[in-house]
Structure formats: C-alpha cells, structure tokens
Amino acid sequence: MERKNIIMGVILATLLVAALSLLYRKSPTDRMEIDSNRFTIQDTAAIHAIQLQHEDATLAFRRNKGNWLIEDEKVDKRLSTLLLSVMNSLQVKRSATLQEWEKAVATQAPIAVQLEVDGASSEFEVAGNDERQATFFKEDNTCFLVSIPGYDAYLASIFRLEKSEWLSRHLFATNYRRIKNVAVSYANNTEDNFAIVFDNQDFMVAEMTSYSKDKIMLYLDVFQEVRVRKRLSDDDMPAYADVLATSPFAELKVEEIKQSESKTISIYPLPDNREEFLIHWDQDKYALLEKHWIDNLLARKSDFKSEP
Known about the structure:
This protein is an alpha+beta fold. It contains nine helices and 17 strands. The strands form two sheets. It has a nine-stranded antiparallel β-sheet with strand order 4-3-2-1-6-7-8-9-5.
C-alpha cells in the first residue's frame, strides 16, 4: 500500500509540474481572461443609432418610432430584427491573433461598426475569413473570434449588406384606411385608365356610375401586401439603361393621407424577363417587382363594374 501511494504521489506531482509548465508557456494573451459578453448588447432597445462603414460607403441607421431608417427610408424589419438579435446573442469564443485578422482582411476590407447605446458610443471592426466560416471582431487592436453558441452561422455577412439590401421591400407603407386615391394610366388602351377616390365616407370609381364596392376593397387590400423582389443599387442600373430610355407602359399613382408616403410609380416591361417588371419612383428609387403583383395593381376600369 505504501509503495502504491508513493507511485500515485509521483504521478500526481508529475502531472502538476506538466500543467504548470503548460500554463507558463502560454502567451500573456492566452492567459488573459476573456469576457465572453464583451460585445453583447443585453438590451437592444437601448441602441439608438448604428453606423456601418464599408470600404466605399457609409450606412447610417437611426431608430424612429419603432422603425429603423437609412436616409429616411425604412429598413426591412426582418433584417433589423436579425441584426439586433445577433448583437444580443453573440459571444466571444476566444481571442484571435493579429495573423488571423490580417488573413481575414487580406481579400475583403473590414467593416467599421459604431453603436450608440443610451448615449454612449462603442466602436469595433468586423471581418470574416475567406471560407465564410469564422467572424472576427477587433477592438483596441485586440482581436476576437465571435459566434452565437449553438449556431453555425457566418455572422459577418449581415454587416456586409449593401444599402439596397437593407431597405424595406414593402412598396407601400399603407393600408386602405390611409389611401386618399389611386389612379392607373396606360400609355396605350387609355380606355382602361381609372381613378379610385375617397368621397366623404366611401371609395368610388371616378366617372363610373355603376361599380362594385366589394371589388374596390379587394383591390385596395392588395397594397399592404406588395413586396418588391429586389431594390436596385447604383451598380445594378447600367443593366437597365436601355429599358429606362423607353417610355413606361403604365403609371400608378397612390396618394396617401400622409403626403410623404405618396408615390407615382412608372412601370416598365423587361424584354428578356416576363416574370418581373422594372419600377421607378421618386427620383432615384428602382426595384424589380414580380408579375403577379403587377397583375393585381394594374387593374382596368372594367374590372370594377358591378354585377348585373
């Protein structure tokens, strides 16, 4: 028994020496205690502004009455919710070396992030590796590998979205209660043009004596559902230069009670794509809208006739 105890003591002593040796072989950074919640925002409602500095553009987000805006345009709620969820859930997995960071930014510039949380500002940079498998944050010249525990997600991708990808895809911020009138006009077949106007307490089809109120309401209900497939960026526009050089085949005007939400939309068919249309509103807003939405929006005057 005494011999066994001696052998066990020798083994334990050897293991202890080995453990201590490994500990002191580590660099000071490795021995540093890592705060896993260093970048975590526990209360995302306290975030009032976000700035993402890309290599060639700056995206400035601000919160306004429950919505996030970029230059007064609404951000897609699904994406803003996802970004806030990432900031609430991510954790530092481990410290990273400057070599890992430099490799990550060698082919793609990092994104500089600035957050305003309850009046206090924080700044860090975001980068991802070429394999889109790892996301690194850098703050005060110190690098970290970050992740969401339990999820295999490439977090850097959401920080790299362009402005056109962030913008809300809802074409109209409205429902029928906010509409004052709607007018559709065609370049040809002008007999199909129509206008729906709100007259005192109800909607009516202008210059039409016999119309169906039910058909009007079914038509107006469509507006709150319409989503464009893609908001177009400046880089996309050269591909549509020839289309925009032609005249639109139809125009849709929607006047809302809140005048700033009113739109006049020019609609262009695409010669090589029968499933989508190019739409243009304001001075510089373009999008692709699927055919089934166009079919619903571009009704014809005869569609509102009341049944005999």
